C-alpha cells in the first residue's frame, strides 16, 4: 500500500508527472550549486555602429556549464532561476563579473565601450535592486555611463507607475537603459514616451526577413523612425548577413548585433577578435 510505504512510493502512482518533477528538482538543486561551484560564465557579443563601423558596446550573455549536461542555454535555466528567486544572486554575480571585465578593458587603455547587461523581471522588482547596482558600480569602479541595463517591455508594463519610479532611480545612478526584444511585448506607446530610456533593441524576429520580406522591412523601418522621433538609439538584434546590414544601413538604424559580426565569445576571445580587426 502506498500509504504504508511512505513518501517515496508516491512515484508509483504518477510516474510521468513525478519523473518530470524529479528532473525539475534535480535542475533546481544543481542550479543552487552553480554559483558556489563556479559553473556560471559570461560570453560577450559586440554591438557595432552601422555605417561608421567600429565597436560601440558589448552584451554580456550568461552561460551555465552544467557538470553533466555541458553548456546550458539561458533560455533553459533563466525561467527556473526566476521561479526560485536564484536569479537575484545570479544576476548580481553577472553584473559584478561584467563590470570587472570592463575594468580589465579600461585598464588596458582600450577605447570607450559600453557594457550591456540583461536584467530579469524578478530582479527588477527586488527591493534591493537599485542599491545593489549602486554598490557594484562603486566596488568595481565602473563609470555609470559605461553600463546599460537591458529590460523588457513586459516588465515595464506590469506596474508601470512603479516601474517608472524605479527607472528614474536607476537613471539617477547615471546608468543607461535599453528595452530588449522590442516589438515582442505589449508596450503602450503612451508609456514608451514616459519611460526614461536611451535605446531600443529590435527583436531578431523582425530582422530575420528584412532583406526578403517587405512587411518585415516596413516594421523595422517604422521602429527605427519611432525610436529616433523619441530621441532613442536603435539597435538591430540577430544581424546574420551582409544583406540584413545593407537594409538596416539604408533605414538609418544605429547599431547592429548578430552572428554576422561575431557569436557570443568568452571574454579573452572577444578581446582578441575585437581588437585585432580594428
Ligand atoms: P537577448 O538578451 O535578446 O540576447 C540575444 C540572444 O540572441 C542571445 O541568446 C544571443 O546569443 C542570440 N543571438 C545573437 N546574435 C544572433 C544572431 O545573429 N542570430 C541568432 N539566431 N541569435 C543571435 P542567448 O545567449 O541564448 O540568450 C538568450 C536570452 O537569455 C537573452 O536574450 C536574454 O533574454 C537571456 N539572458 C542571457 N543572459 C542573461 C543574464 O545574464 N541575465 C538575464 N536575466 N537574462 C539573460
Ligand atoms: Mg539582451
Ligand atoms: Mg534581445
Ligand atoms: Mg531576450
Automatic annotation (TrEMBL):
Residues annotated as domain EAL: 24-278
Protein origin, superkingdom: Bacteria
Record protein name field: EAL domain-containing protein
Organism: Thauera mechernichensis
Residues represented out of the complete protein: 578 to 855 of 855
